[in-house]
Amino acid sequence: MSTVEFFGGLGVIGSSKIMVSHGGHRVLLDIGLDIPAGGDLFRAPVTPRPGRELADRLRVGAAPRIPGLFDPALLPGSGEPAALAGAGAEAELAALAEPVGETAVFVSHPHLDHVGLAGFVRPDVPVHAHRDAVRLLAALADTGEGLPGHEPSWRPLDDGEIVHCGEISVECVPVDHDVPGASGYLVRTPDGVLAYTGDIRFHGRHPGRSEGFVDRAAGCDLLVTEGTTLGWPAPDGPPRNEDDVTDSYRTLLRETAGLMLLALYPRDVERAAEFVACTETAGRRLLWPSGVAAFLRRMGVDAEPLDAVPLADLHAAPGDFVVAPEPYEFPALLDLPLSADSAYVHANGEPLGAFDPRWSLLTGWLATLSVPLHTIGCSGHASPDDLHRMVQRIHPTTVAPIHTTEPTRLHPPIGTHRLVPSYATRYTITGDPL
């Protein structure tokens, strides 16, 4: 009998974890950092304790208690008096440490809400991801931004590659998202087919990848889809695309006389490369924090570090530069030649948006420094219209929207049942509605 359980992504954006089991074999799709519905207890300014990241998360319910998944050396109570593991918890912790059949992990893409717990996986459990995602994660590790815990046993995948775990097979299918190596997966068991989108969009640079996933997933028994935008305000018109973002950036480069500041998530390597080219064409130099510049150079982007340019040069000709400052190091902005002729360009960097509790810090600093704020990004997630169109084309027996605060806003077509999963509840995969 084939079953599926959900250990994250329920009522929240992020923390996706889907376990498919059959005949003593298990496949875990994504292993993201948990974001509890009541709020992330480990959000800034909290600093996780080095070496205790997993143990502390398990103690407060901010990581899934999946037996046989995590490295026993990193579990609560490891190397310390048993009493510190929590009253009455010794038996449960022993069960967590025991291996459970053959297990394999498959990561959809290298964003922390999908890969952030991978560094805690047992060393003997293989962790698969598209080779472009593995390359990006390796570049991050080489430049000091590796995963907490240890680097897992990465197994790079090619487009269309199929991996077997007992009678379960997992096919890697590329999709479009705002990071290299984004993939969905088709999981085939003797009892049915589960398709998982990972994070997906249809308005990016590579819509054909996502359309290809839709074609491959057509008629599956269970479609597990991200539904991020279902919980957002209704859009006014079609979603912004990458051309819109680049055009907005070019306009600001022309119209901003002074120093420009840029907030861009470095893992969006394609956009970073486009912005570097646009900046050079405009006769400016784009400067990055040294660690970010080192990471981008490893990814093939000609990134120039900020510390390679004397501060006096910035003050002498502020209009010749664009600076991507370290997120949240706001006092360092006081050293830069900023004025009302400057601009802060937010292109999906950190803080991520008005919903981020640190957004008010950003806007407060910019107001104090009299620097105008321009938000020009576009989403890495499919619009509600595109999500509904996708489900209609795939027409699964059952669709399970996760990675959203509003799963019931996904309205399936006639003949498709909508499942709003419950945490750690075991559902049977069959040709019938779940």
Automatic annotation (TrEMBL):
<feature type="domain" description="Metallo-beta-lactamase">
    <location>
        <begin position="14"/>
        <end position="237"/>
    </location>
</feature>
<keyword id="KW-0269">Exonuclease</keyword>
<keyword id="KW-0378">Hydrolase</keyword>
<dbReference type="InterPro" id="IPR036866">
    <property type="entry name" value="RibonucZ/Hydroxyglut_hydro"/>
</dbReference>
<keyword id="KW-0694">RNA-binding</keyword>
<dbReference type="GO" id="GO:0003723">
    <property type="term" value="F:RNA binding"/>
</dbReference>
<dbReference type="GO" id="GO:0004527">
    <property type="term" value="F:exonuclease activity"/>
</dbReference>
<dbReference type="Pfam" id="PF12706">
    <property type="entry name" value="Lactamase_B_2"/>
</dbReference>
<dbReference type="InterPro" id="IPR001279">
    <property type="entry name" value="Metallo-B-lactamas"/>
</dbReference>
<dbReference type="InterPro" id="IPR042173">
    <property type="entry name" value="RNase_J_2"/>
</dbReference>
<keyword id="KW-0540">Nuclease</keyword>
<protein>
    <submittedName>
        <fullName>MBL fold metallo-hydrolase</fullName>
    </submittedName>
</protein>
